[in-house]
Amino acid sequence: MFERRNYLRYVLEGSVNLKADSNTSNIFKAVLVNIGFAGLSVFLEESLEIGTFVQFELVSTLTEKPLTGTGKVKNIRETKKHGNAGFRIGIEFVQVDKGIVISILNSIQTKICQGQKRRGQTKGLDMGPL
User: Fold this and answer.
1) Partner of 7 at 20 to 30 A CA spacing, among 92, 97, 100, 121?
2) How far apart are CA 22 and CA 25, in angstroms?
3) Alpha-carbon distances, residue 72 vs 5, 54, 87, 94, 112 (angstroms)
4) Contact in structure between 35 and 10 (CB atoms under 8 Å)
């Protein structure tokens, strides 16, 4: 299958509060599915419309303070998570501190590498000084 994304996505546990610009009174509580340099994906029991602009606040153990910004709903897919019906919603970053996003992605990559070292999966890959 052809990958349409320009950047890798990484699975990360966290929660995301969403507020649609079209409906300023409702704050939706979503579960983070994954994050990448250009956006994030969440699981939400309610649906939003493609093209909707949202304000978001992402909370994760990898961040000292929440990642906040504005995004645009790019895709929606009906799905289930832990037996609950809902929607997987892809959000493209419109306005966000890219430095914080890069920091989160670096932390994820560091955890992946540490996990592989603990399992001995990098054995034999060290080529020493070049």
Assistant:
1) 121
2) 9
3) 15, 6, 15, 7, 29
4) yes
pLDDT band at 121 (very low <50, low <70, confident <90, very high): low
In the CATH hierarchy, which fold is given to the domain comprising 9-115? Thrombin, subunit H (2.40.10)
Q: Which residue has the tokens 């939003």?
A: 48
Reported as a pLDDT band with limits 50, 70 and 90, residue 114 is confident
Handedness of CA 80, 92, 68, 19 (dihedral sign): negative
Quote the CA–CA distance of 108 and 102 in Å, as a whole number: 10
Tell me how far apart the alpha carbons of residues 103 and 105 are, in angstroms, rounded to a whole number. 5
The predicted-structure confidence for 14-36, as pLDDT tens digits, reads as follows 999 999 886 667 889 999 999 99
pTM: 0.82
Q: And the tokens for 60? A: 């994760």
The DSSP symbol for 69 reads E
Judged by phi (left if over 0) then psi (alpha if -120 to 50, else beta), residue 65 lies in: beta
